[in-house]
Amino acid sequence: MKLGGRIIAQKDAFLCAAQGVSIGIEFQKRLGTGIFGGEGFIMEKLEGDGLAFVHAGGYVMEKELKTGELLKIDTGCIVAFTPSVNYDIQFVGGIKNTIFGGEGLFFATLRGPGKVWIQSLPISRLASRILAFGTYKRKEEGSILGGIGNILDGDGT
Predict the structure, then answer these.
(1) Taking all residues of the chain, what is their mean pLDDT, rounded to a whole number?
(2) 105 — phi, psi (to 5°)?
(3) 3-state secondary structure of 66
(4) Residue 64: beta bridge partners?
(5) How far apart are CA 84 and CA 112, in angstroms?
């Protein structure tokens, strides 16, 4: 494992690692992070000199933050970051955001220097989208088979 031998990842992000990597728990020490952090309060700490794999959903982007550079992001979209990155939670604010935001009232702030990895589709959102897709009556728009596809799928209609 490069990167100074340590990264902080979302809980449950760890997949596997080679010998020489230890997995532990990293608690975010700030009160706001602990109370409002959602996915971001308890994180995984990967340490060592081996190769480690973490999972993410959608498009994954690696970003190198310069000293003092700030990234504001939904807490669920953080995959991992190096320990030199300062991590905190902030209130989004504003009545419109509170009522119509849809993503929650808080976001994460990541301040450099250091590397961060972000994802476009957290696994929890992917699961909820799959569940939503399976629980309503599908329209067979553009399908040659139309309703026959539902019968073949076992829907029976």
Answers:
(1) 77
(2) -95, -5
(3) coil
(4) 115
(5) 7
Q: How many CA atoms lie within 13 A of 112 on its CB side?
A: 14
C-alpha–C-alpha distance, residues 110 and 128, integer Å: 26
Dihedral sign (CA 27, 80, 109, 118): negative
Asked if 125 and 83 count as a contact pair (C-beta separation under 8 A), the reply is no
Q: What is the pLDDT of residues 94-136, one digit of tens each?
A: 666 556 655 556 788 999 999 999 999 887 777 777 887 776 6
- Using DSSP's 3-state secondary structure scheme, residue 69 falls into coil
Its pTM stands at 0.70
Whether 87 contacts 108, CB under 8 Å: yes
